[in-house]
Design goal:
The chain is of the alpha/beta class. It contains 32 helices and 35 strands. Helix content is 31%, strand content 17%. Helix 2 (14-24) packs parallel to helix 10 (197-209), helix 9 packs antiparallel against helix 12 (229-236) and helix 30 (927-933) packs across helix 31. It is found in: Nucleus. It is an enzyme of class 6 (ligase).
């Protein structure tokens, strides 16, 4: 009798019932729904194992049975009566897992799901995503342990990919291993903890629902208090397991429907199931020639001609499967589910029914299916379509487009998701994955109708020879597509398989097309897993051209261009490591090395490397790419699509690496050529080492080059003494600063004699600078002023503006200020530190904005008087000519409007024009008060009030003021002509 049969006769214990309650208390579906969906599901009969059993009895030994390093071969021992006595690592791991599962079934029960969801957590689709990346987990552990972020352990947790600070560590790139190192130093428990598997699953379910740190932290604290360091290691561990659940992508279903090892699935149970996610078939990488590709596919089957295959465009989108079934409960009568290739549920985005008002797709699909269709499963690609350009948009915009489609479903201009269907796997209760592709396509054609711009059948072209692939590939590449997929029309659908029935052809696999570029490495990224602690991918850049160098850029400076990690083998990594060892510098986000490298983003944050290297210390690599695309992730504003490393270029250095100007010329040339032959890109490597040319020590070029920076006369007649190197915001040697000064008209003195006519330059308090500060008679200027002064002079010269030496600024330029200079220097900026003479850069302006709220204002401070400023400018003959603008034409006018009880519309409009033109409109009762002050300049009359002009003139005359008495038409005509105020003589009211 099997353990499954024995368990059916038992009754669950009270502890087992409690564990089951914990296990499924936070499930997204109720227990009643579970019983309905799985009426024969297994139950737990005894209390769950202790949580350590999920690591010690199975996982820990399994991890220890790794493949041994190659060595002298040993004869395989023959199997004895109890099986082979010398198991391979794979066989030993399998044996450990089988024994553990067997023991669980006999001692706990047939429900193995609680244990399996801990052993392979990444396959558990029933538990919500935690939303916890390594950085956030590290932050939580630091808080639980009350560590300082700046301590060695705090630093090592946050920077887990980097080599450890402090004692040497073998866990670089291994996040759980790094956590174990830290936790094992300060464990709450030395012995095994007291948590059962059910309790662990309950806490993990709560963690998945906790979205804020204050809710996550108590859960982490409970794990820390109730588990030892080894248990916590396995809690954080995510194994890289194979896909064990291709058909359903449901760990729960695998555990509950395959409880008895003696019972196997029937043929009709190994297909896809409606409303249950599966692992789709994938395309194989192509062999080394088109002809071999066609021969490998070997299409066979009834009605299929010899060597016939189908060519489809490879779409740049997300692989999606759509399930639809008839349902009386769903609005519109049909229920939908959508899943990605990795099993992520997107039903909330694309819609659960025809009547789903929040859907981006289903509400538009009512006419997409033949009336005879009651249930169907479709396989396809979700793309983003731009209805204005009629083109596919890059994949990264898909989710944005889907959300936009939910919020504005009937827009004719916004990008939208479109489901491109290329396969049908299930129809009206019949599983058809074992039908040929041609038959499945016929089913698709008769079941689905195109709804343009929403759901469309993906087109294909039948082909008979390898020669038809080349023009098809050339055509789609010219249109900016990803590549081709070639399919065998006589093949069945194979779940979670890459095989020769589907082959993908992408242009980066070709030679004779795409750019072969020699670029300099400027940054590196540490890998994880087996690449932990080593650089696994690199940031490459383009040298700045003469244009940037002329405005002060270091000739070695590079703009970030692309990131490459594919194509390297162990020898390549070793060669790069050998040539660059000891020359890598950790990237400092606060002080980025902008003298040598410029990244994208206002804070140099995009594609930021872990470490960087000076171009003169780096190596040149040859890379191949499919094409060039626009990108705001790199400083060049474009990047390579699918870059792949080809080889190192020891014959080149940074001076001969590709520059921005050279690349743009190459790009234009390649885009103008369309007749290259496509050939498969065989990566052949010369097995012989490159023989380095031997040189006599001391005779090599020292790498120094002539000054290539700007030449101005900004420092003409000035003398400088440079005391130290420049350390902020970029590093520059003392000699380098002196070179800039001399090439821009200045003179250099090596002795700071304290005279007023010498400008002292220093960025740190070296002995000479400290002595001058102690004497207190000489202000000291930071080297950044030299660079800014040259840059500002060049800008002003281009604009034809006045030429002057940039004034000093207290916060930006001064290392030390004497009392005599302080007041003058402080007057060179406003209260926020914004210079009156220099064009500030965007990042500096952002910092100024951030500090504005911290400045305390004087309550008695008067508002800025624009009129007073304009009057002062006019007095000095520097008026701005604003009086001819309608918004300024009545500036300085104070007008009293004399109107009756009823104001006609024309007059009301001109009153508004008067005020818009910065005139001040007063009422009749204000006339005497303002006239006494002498402030009224105009008295403006409505047509029916001109008879009162005599009395008003007498009244205003008593005060000594002489305002103009004019008709309201004075305002109207001035406004219509738009040339400023008109002469009042033509509009005077007589009386």
């Amino acid at each position: 009798m099997s353990s499954s049969q024995q368990n059916k006769k038992k009754k669950p214990t009270a502890e087992a019932i409690a564990d089951e309650e914990r296990q499924y208390a936070h499930s997204p579906i109720s227990k009643e729904e579970l019983h309905d969906k799985y009426p024969n599901r297994p139950t737990t009969m005894e209390k769950h194992y202790h949580s350590m059993n999920c690591s010690s009895p199975s996982s820990t030994p399994s991890k220890r049975t790794r493949r041994k390093k190659p060595g002298p071969s040993m004869a395989r021992k023959k199997a004895g009566p109890h099986g082979p006595s010398n198991l391979s690592p794979h066989e030993e791991r399998r044996s450990i897992i089988v024994r553990f599962m067997s023991r669980w079934r006999s001692q706990v029960g047939d429900d193995f799901f609680p244990a399996l969801r801990l052993i392979i957590p990444e396959k558990d689709r029933d538990r919500a995503m935690y939303g916890l990346k390594e950085a956030l987990v590290a932050k939580l552990i630091i808080k639980v342990l009350n560590l300082s972020k700046d301590s060695d352990d705090g630093y090592n947790l946050i920077n887990w990919k980097l080599p450890a600070r402090g004692p040497p560590s073998a866990n670089s790139g291994d996040f759980p291993g790094r956590c174990y190192e830290v936790l094992s130093k300060r464990p709450m428990r030395q012995k095994v903890g007291d948590m059962s598997i059910g309790e662990v699953n309950e806490l993990l379910d709560r963690l998945a629902l906790a979205q804020k740190e204050e809710n996550q932290l108590p859960i982490f604290r409970e794990f820390y208090q109730r588990m030892n360091a080894e248990e916590l290691l396995w809690l954080l561990w995510h194994p890289d397991g194979e896909a064990l659940f291709n058909i359903s992508s449901s760990l729960r279903r695998v555990c509950w429907e395959l409880t008895d090892p003696a019972v196997t699935l029937e043929d009709d149970e190994t297909g896809v199931e409606l409303m249950s996610c599966f692992q789709p078939q994938l395309a194989q990488f192509m062999p080394n020639s088109f002809q071999k590709l066609v021969d490998k596919m070997c299409p066979q089957g009834p009605g299929i001609k010899d060597q016939e295959f189908w060519i489809e465009e490879k779409l740049d989108g997300e692989r999606i499967q759509m399930h639809m079934e008839e349902s009386d409960d769903a609005p519109g009568g049909y229920r939908f589910s959508w899943w990605s290739r990795k099993g992520k549920d997107y039903t909330y985005l694309y819609g659960n029914s025809f009547g789903d008002d929040n859907s981006a797709l289903t509400r538009h699909m009512k006419m997409a299916f033949d009336p005879r269709v009651s249930s169907i499963i479709l396989d396809g690609e979700m793309i983003t379509w731009d209805p204005i350009t009629n083109k596919i948009v890059a994949f990264g915009t898909l989710k944005t487009a889907a959300i936009s489609g939910k919020n504005d479903p009937f827009s004719d201009t916004a990008a939208r998701p479109v489901f491109k269907v290329f396969d049908c796997l299930y129809l009206n209760g019949v599983n058809i994955i074992k039908y040929t592709l041609k038959d499945r396509r016929n089913v698709l054609e008769s079941s689905v109708c195109n709804v343009e711009g929403r759901i469309e059948k993906h087109a294909f072209k039948p082909a008979k020879s390898a020669s038809e692939i080349d023009p098809a590939l050339r055509k789609i590449v010219a249109e900016g597509a990803e590549g081709l997929v070639l399919k065998n029309p006589g093949s069945m659908y194979r779940l979670n398989s890459r095989n020769d029935d589907w082959m993908k052809v992408k242009p980066e696999y070709m030679t004779g097309f795409g750019e072969s570029l020699d670029c300099i490495i400027i940054g590196g990224y540490y890998g994880s897993g087996h690449r932990g602690g080593n650089l696994s991918s690199f940031l490459c850049g383009l040298r700045v051209d003469d244009k940037q160098i002329r405005v002060g850029a270091n000739p070695m400076k590079c703009f970030s261009f692309f990131k490459v990690g594919g194509g390297f083998n162990a020898d390549d990594y070793a060669a790069i490591r050998h040539q660059t060892e000891g020359k890598w510098i950790k990237w400092d986000a606060k002080f980025p090395p902008t003298e040598f490298i410029e990244l994208a983003g206002s804070h140099q944050e995009r594609e930021r490397p872990d470490v960087w290297i000076k171009p003169e210390d780096s190596v040149v690599v040859e890379v191949k790419a499919a094409s060039v695309g626009v990108s705001d992730s790199f400083r060049t504003n474009f990047t390579l699509r699918f870059p792949r490393f080809k080889r190192l270029r020891p014959d080149k250095d940074w001076k001969s690496a590709l520059s921005i100007e050279e690349f743009m010329e190459l790009k234009a040339k390649v885009e103008g050529e369309g007749d290259d032959e496509f050939e498969v890109d065989k990566k052949k490597r010369d097995s012989h080492r490159v023989k380095r040319q031997k040189i006599i020590a001391g005779t090599a070029d020292d790498g120094k080059s002539a000054y290539a920076g700007p030449h101005t006369d900004v420092f003409e007649g000035m003398k400088f003494c440079v005391l130290s190197e420049m350390i902020h915001p970029v590093k520059k040697s003392k000699v380098g600063i002196e070179t800039i000064i001399k090439n821009n008209g200045g003179q250099i003195s090596q002795s700071p004699n304290g005279k007023e006519d010498i400008v002292i330059i220093a960025d740190k308090r070296v002995i000479k600078a400290a002595s001058l500060i102690k004497i207190g008679k000489t202000s000291i200027v930071r080297p950044i002023w030299v660079l800014d002064a040259v840059e500002q002079m060049e800008k002003d010269a281009k604009l034809g503006g006045p030429r002057y030496v940039l004034p000093f600024e207290k916060d930006r330029y001064m290392l030390y200020i004497t009392e005599a200079d302080e007041e003058e220097i402080e007057g060179n900026t406003d209260q926020y530190g914004d210079s009156y003479a220099r064009d500030v850069k965007s990042d500096e302006l952002r910092k100024i904005f951030e500090t504005m709220g911290d400045i305390e204002h004087d309550d008695e401070e008067t508002e800025f008087d624009a009129d007073a400023l304009l009057a002062e400018l006019e007095e000095n003959g520097k008026g701005l000519g604003l009086d001819k603008m309608k918004s300024w034409m009545f500036r300085g006018c104070k007008g009293v409007f004399v109107v009756g009880e009823k104001i006609h519309d024309d007059l009301r409009l001109e009153m508004n024009h008067f005020e818009f033109g910065r005139g001040v409109a007063l009422e009749m009762e204000d006339l005497k008060i303002e006239a006494d002050k002498g402030g009224v300049t105009h008295i403006i009359f409505a047509d029916d009030m001109e008879g009162k002009a005599r009395d008003i003139r007498k009244e205003s005359g008593r005060s000594g003021s002489k305002p103009h008495l004019v008709s309201w038409r004075w305002i109207r005509d001035a406004w219509e002509k738009g040339e400023g105020k008109l002469d009042e003589k033509e509009y005077l009211i007589k009386g």
